[in-house]
Design goal:
By secondary structure, this protein is an alpha/beta fold. The chain is built from nine helices and eight strands. An eight-stranded parallel β-sheet has the order 7-6-5-4-3-2-1-8. Strand 5, helix 5 (146-153) and strand 6 form a beta-alpha-beta unit. The longest helix is centred in the C-terminal third of the chain and has 20 residues, at 242-261.
Length: 264
């Protein structure tokens, strides 16, 4: 089985998302994840999904949006509408045979403490996902404590986490207890940065210690896809073509996947 995957990102510069999908296919990727953000993308998420399917790419999960997300922890109308939106997103994923979603639990630094209001909403979302046969993976973002709180209180078997190496490096400063999430890391976002900003660089182009990440994922018994969340922007645009960018990403992904498969 081809164990590599990559994000179909709308953050690439100077190119269309169609060109991104074509470059991903040309590089050899068979598996992707899609940004299901309910935003006004230049090419709608529905059209992206249609084109991805026409290329016979396997969608391993949908990354759901996070606009106004901190309201999910507040007793207000925005929080109520967020819950309804996520339930609708789950129906959309089910209708397109996507069996996992990635969600944030908070956004930014000005966050809301985890509480019963948000927990009840997330519990209902996770219960509905379980009914549909969909896994929910909560991503480590900027603030610590949310993953622990959600997994401590939501006991569903379909609930786990998405480990993001970029956030781990620049936001968590490489401080993450992988042992707490043994058998609960459902998917990963692999990318690099210099420890300050979430740059979404190719692995090894920043300062992330990949040996530490690989060892941590082994401690957590991670067995899923080796998934890159890389972006063609910044200096890459002037230094390398879009196609060569994804070819390079594929080769690096193969190396990382090989390391992950080696026995501890």
């Amino acid at each position: 089985m081809n164990n590599l995957a990559v994000c179909i990102t709308n953050d690439n510069k100077t190119v269309t998302v169609y060109e991104t999908i074509d470059a991903v296919v040309n590089a050899g990727f068979k598996n992707v994840f899609i940004q299901w953000y309910d935003q006004n993308f230049e090419v709608s998420q529905e059209e992206q999904l249609k084109y991805i399917k026409s290329k016979n790419l396997n969608i391993i999960f949908a990354h759901l949006g996070y606009k106004d997300l901190n309201n999910i922890w507040l007793d207000n109308e925005i929080g109520e509408q967020l819950e309804k939106k996520y339930l609708r997103n789950l129906d959309e994923c089910k209708n397109n045979n996507i069996d996992m979603v990635v969600m944030h639990a908070s956004i930014g630094w000005d966050t809301v403490e985890p509480n019963e209001i948000g927990l009840r909403r997330y519990q209902r979302i996770c219960d509905y996902a379980e009914k549909l046969g969909i896994k929910v993976a909560f991503e480590n973002t900027k603030m610590k404590g949310y993953l622990e709180y959600l997994l401590k209180n939501i006991k569903n078997d379909n609930v786990g986490i998405c480990f993001d190496s970029g956030h781990y490096h620049c936001h968590f400063k490489d401080d993450f207890d992988f042992s707490l999430f043994k058998d609960k890391i459902f998917c990963v976002h692999i990318h690099d940065n210099y420890g300050n900003i979430d740059d979404h660089l190719l692995p090894y182009d920043g300062t992330l210690d990949y040996n530490k990440v690989i060892n941590g994922l082994k401690i957590a018994n991670y067995k899923g896809y080796t998934t890159l969340e890389i972006c063609y922007r910044m200096n890459y645009v002037d230094k390398i073509s879009l196609n060569d960018f994804y070819v390079k990403g594929y080769k690096i992904g193969e190396e990382l996947d090989k390391l992950l498969k080696e026995e501890k």
